[in-house]
Specification:
The protein is α/β, with parallel strands linked by helices. The protein is built from 26 helices and 18 strands. Strand 14, helix 22 and strand 15 form a beta-alpha-beta unit. The radius of gyration is 28 Å and the shape is globular. About 5% of the residues have low confidence.
């Protein structure tokens, strides 16, 4: 990589000739294929922005000028051009983040991966600098066409249109996709703008032909060129942006560095807000990616760089268990419909969509709209299943609370990637949902412990029609089913210190410790219980299955224990806090072996600390925060001593 090794920062790019810049693009594309195939990561999106990112850094002066990437998973090329050449530990603990990271570089600004935020950041930065007398510094927001489906973008554009003198450039990275093909009215509008490329081709041909005609040729061409705006409006109206008062340039071939530089320099020199429409291809230059119609290698694991085939076969995922059961339910019930926010494939809705195409709604990157729409579908007599990553539920909490729960609409939320996800870093961990859901009146939340329980919980959830229900599960491969010893009401007893006793009441009384495992943390709870048993403590392990609201059976079991431990993959205090409040409301209840009643037992909560967690594997993050069997058992032993 002779050219890439010479690039220690954006200033080095400016000295390259156009031919060298194109050669650098080829080197970077080859490097991305070679390195990401070994580590995994967002390959397809970054292959699509190689030339675009080179042009950005050749025209603008980062970090004096600020570059924002929406979403941040398209920042790999930006990292390479700002001197970060070692991708061997990409998305691994201690290595490069898969998103922009302020800890890595002054060139990185917005770290989170929640889409459609860049224009709000951009107008804030540009306005702030203008107020501080720094109006000569440009702010550039690179936003994917999929992110334009988010309502926050249009709130920002409304505001930007009122401050058109800001040195602010909006670059639409239009590859016709978010994760999968972009859908909706904005996608159709951008598709119509792409048609103007044909017009530009005709105009260029006309210029060549007419200027060869002596005397009158130049005058005819200039007359036609003066009609350009009118012709464009006929071929493909671009009035949406221009009616907002935004200067529109494009569409431009995003894989032509010189064309991109020309457009970006015009935008740089304009002296106000400019929108540059760049046409790119996701996975560009890598045949296995462009041949993958599903997602163009949006995110890959370790793959063979020659073939694109995976080198590691993953086991059956939690998502697969949900996906299969939803299809079965869809056959049984015509009222079940599904919604997602531009994540049809990742959340497991593709099989349902193939079987019932009229019953799936991909609303784009618009979680708020999805939840309010689901409430309307419920009111109309259907049962919507809203499928989101757990971290993205944060964006629609108001709609969950005020549109769905307040109106007691029967909507089921399926939260994928709950708990620690690991390699995608702080913004992707699904660690807030149980705490947020705990303050929603009337909500019911299930946390299945295995794949078998995912299917059972989903069936139970869609039978709830008087308020919202939630089923949450983690990322990754699902293990073997964990069988219950017995069931008490709706909860499962998984470890019983008195198995085989003739008196069930005696079995539940006089416990030294009740361990409550929440969802995927049940296996950890069982291992902790084994260690407590080895220390001579009478220990029971239960899985509440439905963790919110806290069941009367769980409260009664807890009142019969000297101590209670709750292990959850949510910020500490979620279910532990709910159980503590339920015990306080129930009053004293622990029965000593002499028959006396003591105070309400203490609840020891073990969960995720209230902090943003750096990327690493799931196991590494759990070890770092002390949420492993050994670490929990050690801490619990100290508290019980």
């Amino acid at each position: 990589m002779p050219l890439m090794r010479t690039i220690t920062g954006p200033a080095d790019l400016k000295a390259l000739t156009p031919t060298q810049a194109q050669a650098l693009a080829a080197e970077i594309r080859a490097y991305l294929i070679s390195s990401v195939s070994q580590t995994g990561g967002h390959l397809g999106p970054n292959l699509g922005v190689v030339e675009l990112t080179i042009a950005l850094h050749r025209v603008f002066d980062s970090p004096r000028d600020t570059l924002l990437f929406d979403t941040g998973h398209i920042s790999y090329v930006h990292k390479l051009l700002t001197g970060r050449h070692d991708f061997s530990t990409l998305r691994k603990q201690g290595g490069l983040s898969g998103y922009p990271s302020r800890a890595e570089s002054d060139h990185d600004v917005v770290e989170n991966s929640h889409a459609s935020t860049s224009l709000s950041w951009a107008i804030g930065i540009a306005t702030g600098r203008q107020l501080r007398g720094q109006g000569d510094r440009h702010t550039v927001a690179v936003i994917g066409d999929g992110a334009l489906t988010g309502g926050m973008v249009w709130e920002a554009l409304n505001n930007i249109a009122d401050q058109r003198d800001l040195p602010l450039i909006i670059v639409i990275n239009d590859n016709e996709r978010s994760y999968a093909p972009t859908r909706g009215g904005m996608a159709d509008y951008l598709a119509s703008l792409r048609a103007t490329q044909e017009y530009e081709t005709v105009l260029s041909w006309g210029k060549r032909q007419l200027t060869r005609t002596p005397v009158v040729g130049r005058q005819v061409y200039e007359t036609l060129h003066g009609m350009k705006k009118g012709l464009k409006d006929i071929v493909s109206p671009q009035g949406l942006f221009e009616d907002l008062g935004l200067k529109y340039l494009g569409p431009v071939d995003g894989h032509d560095i010189e064309a991109m530089e020309t457009a970006l320099r015009r935008a740089h020199d304009f002296g106000g807000v400019v929108l540059v429409h760049a046409l790119t291809e996701k996975g560009h230059g890598y045949d296995p990616a462009t041949a993958d119609e599903a997602d163009r290698f949006h995110a890959v694991g370790k793959i063979n760089p020659e073939t694109g085939l995976p080198l590691e076969l993953s086991g059956r995922a939690w998502t697969d268990e949900f996906s299969d059961e939803l299809v079965r339910l869809g056959r049984e019930r015509e009222d079940i419909v599904a919604l997602t926010a531009a994540m049809l494939i990742p959340v497991g809705l593709q099989p349902f969509a193939e079987r019932f195409p009229d019953r799936v709604f991909d609303v784009g990157i618009a979680e708020q709209h999805a939840v309010a729409m689901a409430s309307g579908l419920s009111f109309a007599g259907l049962h919507p299943v809203v499928c989101l990553y757990a971290t993205f539920l944060n964006r629609a909490f108001d709609q969950l609370l005020m549109d769905c729960a307040l109106h007691r609409q029967g909507v089921t939320f399926v939260l994928d990637r709950a708990g620690i996800t690991g390699s995608d870093g702080a913004s992707h961990n699904g660690m807030w949902d149980l705490t947020l859901l705990g303050i929603v009146p009337g909500i019911r939340v299930a946390a299945p412990r295995d794949g078998q329980q995912v299917a059972i919980a989903l069936r139970e959830a869609v039978d709830i029609d008087d308020g919202p229900s939630v089923v949450r599960f983690p990322k990754g491969s699902v293990g073997a089913p964990i069988e219950a010893v017995r069931r008490i009401g709706g909860l499962d007893v998984l470890r019983d210190p008195e198995v085989g006793t003739d008196d069930a009441a005696d079995a539940d009384a006089g416990l030294d410790l009740l361990v409550v495992g929440v969802g995927s943390m049940v296996q950890t709870a069982l291992e902790v219980a084994d260690k407590m048993h080895a220390e001579g403590r009478r220990t029971m392990v239960v899985d509440p299955r439905w963790v919110l609201p806290v069941s009367p059976e769980l409260v009664e079991l807890a009142r019969g224990a000297a101590h209670v431990a709750v292990i959850e993959d949510n910020i500490v205090g979620g279910i532990a806090g709910a159980l503590t409040r339920a015990l306080e409301e129930a009053g004293p209840g622990h029965r000593d072996r002499d028959g006396s009643t003591t105070a309400t037992p203490p609840v020891h909560g073990y969960g995720i600390p209230v902090e943003f967690l750096d990327h690493g594997s799931r196991d590494q993050v759990l070890e770092r925060i002390g949420l492993t069997p050994d670490r929990v058992a050690t801490a619990l032993s100290a508290q019980l001593a």
